[in-house]
């Protein structure tokens, strides 16, 4: 994968791609991102998050760290890059910790894949990522924006015991505008 990454950098197209490596299948998935619209939506949403946090009492813009599109690996499974990731700066003891909040942005009809990505972040982060926000933008028919918030939710049909509550990734909230 290092050779592919180097070639993409040399040709100036690395920033517009996302890599996902399925180790069990020995398969590399290369997603070409839609470009300016995708980045504008992602950045604008991230700026809003940082701005809102900085306005909370006792916080500033330095209260949040960003991992951008850092690649995260799950041995024998898959590696993945999100669009953005955030966490509080005062509680991140190790550089390789996964961010508590991940953001995935899609464009025109990618909601199914975004939901799959949300499940992956929540299942494989070892409880480090607690929330995934999905953003899908469709220009047709009328500039539709969908937001979904995903978290680990209790399994509704499996009985909880005193010592454990079975959980699964699920959509907690959604909004279309």
From TrEMBL:
Protein name: Restriction endonuclease domain-containing protein
Stretch list, region Disordered: 74-93
Superkingdom as given in the UniProt entry: Eukaryota
């Amino acid at each position: 994968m290092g050779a592919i990454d180097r070639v993409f950098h040399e040709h100036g197209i690395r920033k517009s791609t996302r890599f996902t490596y399925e180790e069990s299948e020995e398969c590399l998935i290369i997603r070409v991102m839609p470009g300016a619209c995708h980045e504008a939506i992602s950045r604008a949403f991230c700026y809003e998050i940082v701005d809102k946090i900085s306005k909370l009492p006792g916080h500033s813009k330095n209260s949040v760290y960003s991992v951008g599109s850092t690649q995260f690996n799950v041995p024998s499974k898959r590696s993945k890059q999100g669009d953005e990731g955030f966490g509080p700066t005062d509680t991140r003891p190790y550089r390789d910790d996964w961010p508590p909040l991940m953001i995935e942005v899609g464009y025109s009809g990618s909601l199914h894949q975004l939901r799959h990505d949300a499940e992956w972040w929540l299942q494989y982060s070892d409880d480090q990522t607690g929330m995934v926000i999905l953003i899908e933008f469709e220009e047709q028919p009328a500039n539709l924006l969908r937001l979904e918030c995903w978290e680990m939710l209790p399994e509704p049909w499996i009985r909880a015991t005193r010592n454990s509550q079975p959980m699964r990734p699920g959509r907690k909230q959604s909004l279309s505008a």
